[in-house]
Amino acid sequence: xxxxxxxxxxxxxxxxxxxxxxxxxxxxxxxxxxxxxxxxxxxxxxxxxxxxxxxxxxxxxxxxxxxxxxxxxxxxxxxxxxxxxxxxxxxxxxxxxxxxxxxxxxxxxxxxxxxxxxxxxxxx
Length: 124
Known about the structure:
Blueprint: H1 10-21, E1 27-28, E2 39-41, E3 46-51, H2 73-96, E4 100-105, H3 112-123
């Protein structure tokens, strides 16, 4: 578990590079906001979370990455459910505070064209 990093992973870096290339500037991992959002666009009051499909249990049936663990379910399932519940709570607190939230899943970072359109629509 110590080897699992929480920042600077490939999906997050893909989104960060694309947003920067599109001309958007942001702050990273603000500790004063619930959930430590991956990207914070302060002047626009918008936040982007880049979630791993397994760790945050992406509920899209077409997602090839999200899956339930096959072994040691007594440990993994409650752990993953707590993560999902914590995400929902943090998103609720942030939206009540006036932030607009976008969640980009790991599997959605594979198609750069679609990701570019999605970022542009969200940030305009």
